[in-house]
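User: Here's a protein and a ligand (adenosine-5'-diphosphate). What would the complex look like?
Assistant: Let me lay out the input and then the predicted complex.
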Amino acid sequence: MIGLIFGPPGSGKGTQASRIQHELGMAHLSTGEILRSEVAHASPVGKEAARIMAAGDLVPDDLIDRIVGSRLRRTEPGTSVLLDGFPRTIEQAKALDAMLAKLGRNVDFVVALDVPESLLVDRLLHRAAVEGRADDTREAIMERMHEYRARTAPVLDHYRHTGVPVAEVNGVGDLDEVFDRVREALKRALGQPRYKGRAGGI
Ligand code: ADP
C-alpha cells in the first residue's frame, strides 16, 4: 500500500504520520526529515537545500524526485510506504505517479489534515521557541504557508480527479483526538476489508 499525508506547516503532519505508520505497519518516508539530515551532514544535497529551506521555499522538483525515486526503488515490492511531505507540487505528483507505475504500484490513499492558518502560525512560533528549527521564523513560516496554499493544495485535486480516496480530517484538537478522526476517515476511505489497523481493525 502507498499512502500520502498532506497538511500545512504546523498541522501535526509528522506526528500523525508516525501514528498511521505504526497503525498500518508502513515504512515512513519524510522528505523534510531526509533534507534536514542532509543539511546536518553538510552533504552536497544539504548544501544546495539549506538556504532554500531556511527561507521557507520549496527545493527543486528534480532534486526531490531523485531522493524519493532512489528510496522507493530500494523498498521491497510488498512494503507499504507512507510518504510525508511529498509530492508537494503537481509536477512532483506526476513524477511520483510515473515512478510508481514503473514499479507496478499506485497511490492507495491520501490523508489531508485541515487546520486554520491563524492557529498554525501560533503553533509554529511556539515550536520555534522550543525546537529552534531554522525555518520557523515568522517570515519563513509565512512563505511556507503561501507555498502550501499555492502549490501543494492543488495536488489534492490531482488525486481526487484520478479517483484516489482522499480522507480530509479536521486537525484541530489534541493528538489522540485527531488520530481517532484519521483512523475513522481511513476506514471509510479504504473500506473495512483493506483497513488492517492494529486497534479496531478486522
Ligand atoms: P513543514 O510541512 O512543516 O513545512 P517539512 O518537514 O515537510 O515541514 O518540510 C520542510 C522544508 O523542506 C520545506 O519547507 C521545503 O523547503 C523542504 N521540502 C520538504 N519536502 C519537499 C518537497 N517535496 N519539495 C520541495 N521541498 C520540500
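Summary: Strands lie at 2-6, 27-30, 81-84, 109-114, 166-170.
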